[in-house]
Amino acid sequence: MLLRNSLWNLAGSALPAIVALATVPLLIHGLGLEGFGIVTLIGSVIGYFGVLDINLSAGSIKYLAQFHAQNERSQFAETFWFGCLFYGLLGTVGALVLYFGAGFLSVQFFTVSPALRAETLLAFQIAAIGFAMSQIQNYLLVIPQALQRYDRSAQAEAFFGVLVNIVSAVVAINGGGMAGVIAVRVAIATINNLWLVWLLHTLGVPLKPVWPRRDIRHTLTSFSAYAYLSRLAALLQAHGDKLIVGTLAGPVALTFYTVPAQLAGRILGLCFRLASVIYPRVSALAATGQHASLRLLYLDTTRLLTYLNLIVLGMIALAGEEFLRRWVGAEFIEQGYPVLLLVTLALLVDSLTNIPSLVNDGLGHPHVTGRFALARGVTGIALVFAGTLAGGIVGAAAAHLLASLLMTVLFLFYVHGRTVPVSLLETLRVSWLPSIAIGSIGFAVLVPLKWLLPSGVAGTLLLVTTALLVLLVAGYIFIVSVDERHALLALARKFYPGT
Predict the structure, then answer these.
(1) What would the pLDDT profile of 330-348 be if each residue is shown by its tens digit?
(2) In this model, does residue 274 exceed pLDDT 80?
(3) pLDDT tens digits for 132-176?
(4) Is the pTM value of this prediction over 0.70?
(5) Are 146 and 30 contained in the same domain?
(6) In a shared domain, residues 179 and 316
(7) Residue 130: band (very low, low, confident or very high) from pLDDT cuts 50, 70, 90
(8) Bridge partners (DSSP) listed for residue 447
(9) Is the pLDDT of residue 8 over 80?
């Protein structure tokens, strides 16, 4: 079930991510460099208002999974409705503040040419309404995930994620402007929410309102108060660098920074989707006392995800330059490719903390994850500010990498053997070293092909295809265990009976 959930969760994010990357050139063409940068800034400012969210969704996943495993139906219903009430109120308050403060915020964070000022304000006000829709949508999506029904949540994410990107691009290239693009995104989010309510009904989630008791409210808010630190840190990392670059260097420079960073973030984010399904699984295993299974789950997922992340990094490094040229144009190569490499390395380092963080939260230690995540966010913001002043967008990306290296090392040393029930030495020996060694040997053999093969699309495709085949075969032989091979074959036979 875990493998199936991982693949469904990956698919739910992969399809929209591919379409989003494919439509970026259309958005830039339709909105212009400045317009695309402004839409990005609006998203970052709106995203920062997520600071109002105490990350109740993290606590909801944990306790919904726990109560479902223990068949505690009344506590499950109260937990669900507490989240509904919280996110409904949060979305309403945030939308009102953003709508009426749009004029002030656009002046504070935006340097806009006179011709785009009026449209920027209108786009900001429409996005404020979208804030309410997104809060409700994000919460409703976690309910099937807590039930470990990632197939259903992934189907919703895939369909509406693809739809919103395609429609946004169509509106942009047909002259809809920034306001038109944001308006259709809000409309699709509203339809998505209605579909999610129907989905929860089919899954048997109690939709009859109940008032949560004090102990449920206390348990969720206590857990989420610490998980909020992780939420705050995620907001700092997701939007802080963009606000700094946009403010200090302007919307055009932000476009040159955002496009390659978005490419790296979306691709490596897909790997996190494979890992995130263990969170409700960890909660269920802990609730039923299956500690040996929990330890094995940690070591296995760490080994597999480390190797997979290395493959992704290698593909970006090998093909990134040619991809940027064909994707958004040669003008992005000089500044964009160094940013792409640096941000990719930073994200790879950050990815080493993903599994320990999920296990920490699943075992009820969000305070540890939250404090380190907040320290990572604050450190990153400070270094990115200094890096942008010193070296522009390349300096910002280098600062992002430095912050990742520093805080990842400190976090991994602290949690192993304390909140994570596996020692650092065992994790290094069983999970990290095999994956890093096989991946490094594979790339040492493959990198010379970058200069031996002809340049251009054909040569890049041949390089990527060869590299993927070599690394996947090496992983299947040296990284994937016998039991995991049997699970893969069983899954293949389910979809292809003749396998």
Answers:
(1) 777 777 888 888 988 888 8
(2) no
(3) 888 888 888 888 888 877 777 778 888 888 898 899 999 999 988
(4) no
(5) yes
(6) no
(7) confident
(8) none
(9) no
CB of 355 closer than 8 Å to CB of 301: yes
Q: Phi first, then psi: what are they for 392, rounded to 5°?
A: 65, -145
pLDDT tens-digit map of 186-229: 999 899 999 988 988 888 888 888 888 888 888 877 777 666 66
Q: Name which of 219, 148, 160, 150 is nearest 195 in CA terms.
A: 160
Q: 193 and 325: one domain?
A: no
420 by DSSP, 3-state: which?
A: strand
- Write out the residue range of the structural domain in which residue 259 sits: 244-499
Let me know whether 192 and 250 are in one domain: no
Please give the angle made by the CA atoms of 452, 340 and 381, to the nearest 5 degrees: 155
Q: H-type helices in 277-332, by residue range?
A: 278-287, 291-328
In terms of domains, do 151 and 204 share one? Answer: yes
Q: Is 152 exposed, middle or buried (0-12, 13-18, 19+ CB in 10 A)?
A: buried
**Residue with token string 């994620």:** 161
* Domain identity same for 336 and 477: yes
Q: DSSP state, 430?
A: I
CA 164 to chain centre: 17
Q: Residue 57: how many CB atoms within 10 A of its CB?
A: 25
Residue 416 falls within a domain, yes or no?
yes
Q: Going along 187-300, which residue ranges are E strands?
A: none
Q: What is the pLDDT of residues 35-71, one digit of tens each?
A: 888 888 777 777 656 555 666 777 788 888 888 887 8
Listed residue (231, 186, 247) closest to 41, CA to CA: 247
Tell the burial category of 201 from Cβ atoms under 10 Å away from its Cβ (0-12, 13-18, 19+).
exposed
C-alpha 308/C-alpha 296 separation (Å) is 18
- 416: helix, strand or coil: strand
Contact 79, 67 (CB under 8 A): yes
Identity (one letter) of the amino acid at 161? G
Specify whether the CB–CB gap between 259 and 20 falls below 8 A.
no
What is the distance between the alpha carbons of residues 399 and 171, in angstroms, rounded to a whole number? 36
Whether residue 9 lies inside any domain: the answer is yes
